[in-house]
Structures are given as structure tokens and as C-alpha cells.
Amino acid sequence: MCLSKYFAEAGIVHQTSCVGTPQQNGRVERKHRHILNVARSILFQADLPVRFWGESVLTAAYLINRTPTKLLKGKTPYECLFGNPPSYGDIKTFGCLCFAHKARRDKDKFGVRSVKCVFVGYPFAKKGWKLYDLEKKEFFVSRDVVFDEEKFPFAEKKLKDAPIVLPPSVAHCDEEEVRETVIMTERGRSEQPVSGDVSETETSEVSVEKQSETEEQLKQSETEEQLGRGHRKATPSVRLRDYVSYNAQAPPESPDKHNTITGLTSEASADRSGKTHSLYPITDYVCDDFFSDHHQAFLAAVSAGVIPRNYKEAFADERWNKAVKGEVTALELNRTWDVVDLPSGKKAIGSKWVFTIKYNADGSIERYKARLVCCGNHQVEGEDYEETFAPVAKMDTVRTLLEVAAAKNWEVHQMDVHNAFLQGDLEEEVYMRLPPGFHSDDPNKVCRLRKSLYGLKQAPRCWFEKLSDALKRLGFEQSYEDYSLFFFVKGEKSIRVLCYVDDLIIAGNDLELIERFKKRLSETFHMKDLGKAKYFLGIEIARGPLGMYLSQRKYALDIINEAGLLGCKPATTPMEVNHHLLRDKSPLLTNPAKFRRVIGRLVYLTVTRPDLSYSVHVLSQVMHEPREAHWDAAMRVIRYLKGSPGQGIMLKADSDLRIRAYCDSDWASCPRTRRSLSAYMVLLGDSPIAWKTKKQDTVSHSSAEAEYRAMSDALKELTWLKRLLADLGVRHEDPMDLFCDSKSAIYIAANPVFHERTKHVEKDCHSVRDAVKAKLIATRHVRTTEQLADILTKALGSSSFSYLLSKFGVCDLHAPT
């Protein structure tokens, strides 16, 4: 009986998916992805050529059907279909070496008795193994096979045939650099490849000869070359021991084409003193000599530490194993869950371990921390969670609070809440499978959560509500401008508390009051007193007589190191002038996820690096379809970071705390939509506290209209900052200065002139005119060369770029002197 007839008799409506819409058949597509993931894994593990993809897919399906799964309560699909568990005696490693018995068809007693093959799968409806004859290049099935599952013929052949050559030059180097190859490694790691065609004697002779030549070159370079700036010889800081680059220079070309060149070992590239011989060593661009010994110790600790990726790696290390046990103890003492049977109709979510390093106030490693996190992405809205929003501190608020503290000489301390989310009470009914490291003889046992464990969608909200209630009970008021800001004022004494999840910044003008508050808060929650603020959300805070210096030195070095550009030549600007990245048609990237990761990391770097705002803004627009030119542009940004990884902003102590802002636009700058670009830079005194680069929502008909819209965007920020400063105890009675380089926009803001140019402009933009009348702001004209926001709207040349950076408080205290 045909299938359509069966559907008609059974009353089944048969619907097929539309062409090109795999999302309509999601379950099948997910299974396809599962099969292909397994197929790729076994194919790549055996180093088989892609032409064996069919065999790998069939083998993957064979293995999946015989693998127990939690969805089937520990059973295999094979057992559910046939009623009997499968036999695993015939399972062999895909792609391994094997020898098939060859039947005797002659009388030669010394003839070949087996055939060298590769195992490539399980044939259908035959009791044997599918093999590939390496000599005859054909497939066949045999049952008399001897397997060597430790060897993979195609992998060995690939390794033997591969020539040993120097790695390609670092991308984006100038022409004079092409002759040099820079190899990025960690200190202590050396790799000396040896060709399979070269004997041990020949290899050792070549290595000794090359090493002697290198030692002579290094001795000569030590006497001739002066590193760093001036006449000081720069040696790598102990804080940069994980960021060392080595060179491998190719010797004169040999007339023998078959000769191979091995790279220098790390011993030949760097001596015991830690010297590096890259043309552009990282120590030429970052050092810590400017800072006190106390702060240098902190920087050294921040740069250290290797974090495990999973529970298995952590269990092998006694330090992390101790951290896991400590977390388990905290979970049990807090009664985070009850172990129960999973109710019918309920689903349990998974969990994982996340590891990190916590620091003391002096920068030394305080402890290795393990945290159990729920897989909240498996929660279902309406079933096990409702509201999820919880406010966190805005970075503009962080910078503003620190600038006010620097100007008023406030104490700035930091605290951390131990297991903050476990403090929140969970109202919904949520079940979690037993975490890694826990075991129960009953497979149906799960955890009924009582506390808001990390990873749950509602966990941040539960914790913030409990923290807010606790602070209000202590007499604090919550700011309406930033709900994560709380303030307490009693006469001349005051405290401000800024919360970012479980990290708290406490600023106030009375140390005794701050200490009393910290003691009261510790009675309510399990707190960690980190002392004076030094490291907040990856931002390094250094305080001195001049003010507070904020930078992300370690974060920038990690980005450079991950990109493999520690030894590259730095770029003077983050982006080329007059670029055409938004209409580039170069080939698409084969690995767009790598590009997105780089841009995502650069986005957070703009917290203390306004000089990167425009470049990151442009590259963020091509995240959905990155091309090779976009990757090159991203690498240029990292090369720019190489020149100043420790650059940051100075929040000055001698500030008058007056607000002034610069706004600018780039008319019709987007080649795709012809929309303009708006940007503003807000200074509190001479310290930058807020900046933004954003594409306008609509197309502007003139440059004056685009500038007028930019003024409107800046006005919104100024209005908010004025109210925020009032909560910080700083009141502005005088109009705030708003600088613009368009006289037409200033005229429009002052009077309803240029009617033909502005009659179509939305009413919200005319709030600028109302603000001028109300004396909230005062518009000022500034020359284009002095327009600080110009650096946020376009790529500038090196001279203009450096000049504007120096005008708004950006400096590099980590630069070698």
C-alpha cells in the first residue's frame, strides 16, 4: 500500500517543507548536524581524504545508533528498535590500519597471506568489515581481519610527505619585513621540527651549525643594537613572560631544492636573561616602571594563571580540585537544592563548572575559584522562569563616579559577594540534573533548586532584588538615573555604592563610615573585602597624585597574543584613511566565528579606549558576512594595539567637574544606506567620561541636518549626566557647553532659521532648541581641527589622530621611557 493511500485512510495530513527552508524541518536538520559532526570528527582524526566522506557518514550513523542517550533513558536507538542491546565486539577505530587475510589461490608457500588495508566502515547486510586496499585502491568486505588501532596509514603518509618549511610571515607587515618570519610562542616552549627524510646525524649537524651562526649574530646585535627609547636596554618584564616573541630567520637559499630549513629553537632565540630578538619586541611598547612596587606586584599577579576549561582538567590539579570542594561545601551549607525524583512531565536542565582566579587587594592570587553554572539556555519561558531583567552598572556611570572620587579625593574601595546568586530565593519550580562530580545510584534522581543558581535566567534578578532590599534597609537611596547606583548622605558624610552583579565599588568621603558600612554588609552577605579598588571588571585602576588611571593592559595583551601578533610591527592608527570596507567584495572568510570573536573582544576594549570606537563600529557592521579585507582591517586594529597596549584614560584630580561635550557627524557616510554617522565625546573637567559612535536612524538631507541630529544625541547624554552628577553630589547650575563645528547647525539650534532645510526634521530633534532657550546647554563653535569628536566619526591620519588623542585625556603610562 502506497504511503499517500495510507495517509488518506488514517486521516493524516501530509505536509512537506518548502524549498530552501530547512528550519521547517528542524528535528531532521539537527540530526543531520549531529551525524555530520561525528562524521567530521572521525574523518579528521584518521586524516582520511575528503573522498571518504560517504564512508565516514555511514560509520557515524552506525555508531550513533549504538550509543546510549539520555533521551531514551540510557538505551540505544538500536535497542529501542529491535528490542535487544547491540553487540560492540565488531566496533573498531575508523581509519585505522588493518590486514585482511588473503585466501590461497596458488601453491606458493612463501606468497603474501594478507593485504594491507584501511578500515572504513560496516557494510549493510554483511557480516564483516568494509576495507580499503591501499595497493589496489579499491573497496572490499572481509571477515578475517587483524586490526592495529594505534596506527593510521593516511596520517603517517601525510606526515611523511609534508615538507618542513618556515611558517608564513606575519600578515600586514611592510615589504622590508617579508624576509623575516616571526614565530609566536610562550616562554619555555620550543619546537624543532625534523624532516623524516633527514637522518639524526644530518639533523644534529645542521642544528649545531645554525645555532653557532645564530649565537654570533646575537652577540653582534647585542653590541650594536640599542633597544627601547633613548639609550636604555629593554629587557622583558617578568610580567610579560607569557608574551615573548621569537624570530626565525631563513639562511641563504640552498641550491638543493629538496633541502629543508628548520626554525631556530627558543634557546637560540632568547637567552637565559629573557631577551627577545624580534625587530618589534613587546617590551618596546609596554612596561611597568612608572608604577610603584606595590602596583607592579598587582600587575604581575593579574597577568599570571592558567584556567582549566572543564571539570576533568580541574580535577587533575590539586588547587582547582580544592576550589571545587569548597564550592560544593558552600552549595550544601546554603541548601541550594534538594535531591528528589523527577516529577512526570518535568524536564531537568544540565550544568557545568566554570573556573576563574580571584585576587587580593595587593594583587596577589587570593584563591582559585570554581563555580557551578546551570545551562539556563534550556529553560522554557512561562514554565520555569518569568521576568529576567536585572540592571548592571553602566560604564559611563563607572567612569563618572571614579572621576568625581578623584576630584573630591574620596576613598574608593571594592568588595565582592561570595556566591551572590545563591543568596537569591527561587520562586519557580526548576529541576537540574546531577552536576559533574556528583553521583547517585538512582538515575532518576535530580536536583530541585531552592536558590537562584548561576546560569538561571532569573538568577540575576533574584540576586539584585535581595541586594537592593538590603541596601535600602541600611538607609541607602536608589538612583533613578542608574538603578545600580545607591547613595547614602548624612550631613557632610556620604557613601556611593555601584553594583555590577556581585562586584561592588564603594566611594565616600569618610573612611570610618565606609568601614562601618562594609561590616554591616558582611553581616548580611558573605562578602570579600578587596580593599582599595585596583581591578574592576578587567579594568586596571591606578591612583596617584594626578588622579586615577584606567586601562585594560592585560586584556589588550591577551588580544594581541591570541592573534599571534606580539612580534609584528605596530600600526600608527587603527584604520586606514579613506577605506571602503563597507562595500568591499573580497572573498568571504572561511571561519567567520574567529572574526566575530576578535571584534567582540575589541568592543569591550572601548571601555577605556575611545580611539577604537570608530574602527570597532565599522567592523561590527560586517559581522554577518565578514570578508578577507575585514579580517585584515581587524588585524590592523590589533597591530595598532601592539604600539600602546597599556594606553588608557586619566581621570584627573584637579578637575573643576564642569561638563562640556563635543558632537560631530559624518554626512551620508554609510555607502549601503546613505545614513550619517553621529558621535559625541563628553568631558568632566578635562577627563573623558562618555563617548559614543552610532549610525543615525534616518537619512539626512544635508550636512547641517546631520550635525543637528548629532547635537540632539549629545543633548540626551548631557541631560542624563547632569541628573547623575546630582546623585553624586555635584550640581550644575550653569549651562553645559556643547561644541559643534557646523555653524548652520548652531544657527538652527538658536533660531528657527533655514526653514527649507529643517521643515521635515522630527520634533524630538528640536529639543536642542528648547534646551538652549532653557539654558540647559550653550552651543559653541569649534574649528574642525579642534573637534575632539572627529576621531569618533572617521579614520584620520597619524598626525591628526595623535593630536586629538592628546586633547582629551588619553595617555599611556605603561609606555617605556
Task: Give an overview in words.
The structure is a single chain. With 817 residues, the chain is α+β, with helices and mostly antiparallel strands. It folds into 4 domains: 25-162, no CATH class; 175-284, no CATH class; 300-544, no CATH class; 655-782, Ribonuclease H-like superfamily/Ribonuclease H (Nucleotidyltransferase, domain 5, 2-Layer Sandwich). The chain is built from 22 helices and 29 strands. The strands form 7 sheets. A 6-stranded antiparallel β-sheet has the order 15-16-17-18-12-19, sandwiched between helices.
Q: What's the β-strand tally?
A: 29
Q: Structural class from helices and strands? A: alpha+beta
SS strand fraction: 15-25%
Strand order of the largest sheet: 15-16-17-18-12-19
Overall 3D shape: globular
Question: Largest sheet, described in full?
Answer: 6 strands, antiparallel
Helix share, percent: 25-40%
Total helical elements: 22
- What is the average per-residue confidence, as pLDDT, rounded to a whole number? 80
User: Stretches where pLDDT falls below 50 for ≥5 residues?
Assistant: 163-235, 244-276
Distance from first to last alpha carbon:
87 Å
Query: What is the rounded Rg?
Result: 33 Å
Number of domains: 4
Protein name: Retrovirus-related Pol polyprotein from transposon RE1 isoform X1
Organism: Raphanus sativus
Region (Disordered): 183-275
GO molecular function, one term: nucleic acid binding
